[in-house]
Amino acid sequence: xxxxxxxxxxxxxxxxxxxxxxxxxxxxxxxxxxxxxxxxxxxxxxxxxxxxxxxxxxxxxxxxxxxxxxxxxxxxxxxxxxxxxxxxxxxxxxxxxxxxxxxxxxxxxxxxxxxxxxxxxxxxxxxxxxxxxxxxxxxxxxxxxxxxxxxxxxxxxxxxxxxxxxxxxxxxxxxxxxxxxxxxxxxxxxxxxxxxxxxxxxxxxxxxxxxxxxxxxxxxx
Length: 221
Hints:
Blueprint (H helix, E strand, L loop, with lengths): L3 E4 L9 H11 L3 E6 L11 H7 L7 E6 L3 H11 L3 E5 H4 L3 H10 L3 E6 L17 E5 L15 H14 L4 E5 L7 H7 L3 E4 L1 H5 L5 H13 L1
Parallel strand pairs: 1-8, 2-3, 3-4, 4-5, 5-6, 6-7, 7-8
């Protein structure tokens, strides 16, 4: 699969959202929106109101990562706000996962499944035919800038193996502390979609266009 980039809007300069969206509309593949509820993780992120606000200006799919419970509220709220994709955590949906994934798709959104560090790839195997994407958390979820967990690489490799064995086409996404020293190992493990945060993109240069150039040079090196 072609490598794709999903800048995390939680890490963008919120004083210059409009200007930065113009760059991301040209350079990104997805717009990654993190949402948290202080229950599933002890932090707060963006909101359906943010999704609604950027929807008119967004020219790339808005991909929402829900680190929260109460999905019977989150899913319709995000779909109505204009989300193109919604990813939920296996740990949050548990045995209700098939119904939750179906509910996402019934809203016209692509369905993603996120795996926290303690969740093994094989635990998601029965659900893989139901998803468009699997997100491997390479940090403890809910805390941007947390240390990268190198022991997540085998999980990505295992998901790539399962995808081939089952004849599926879901994307494999990494989320958490992507940086210069792990971009290539992540790609070699089987990552298709890279969530780009502060280290990988937004802190490289005050000019987001130049920052994207620098990130791509590192990635393609």
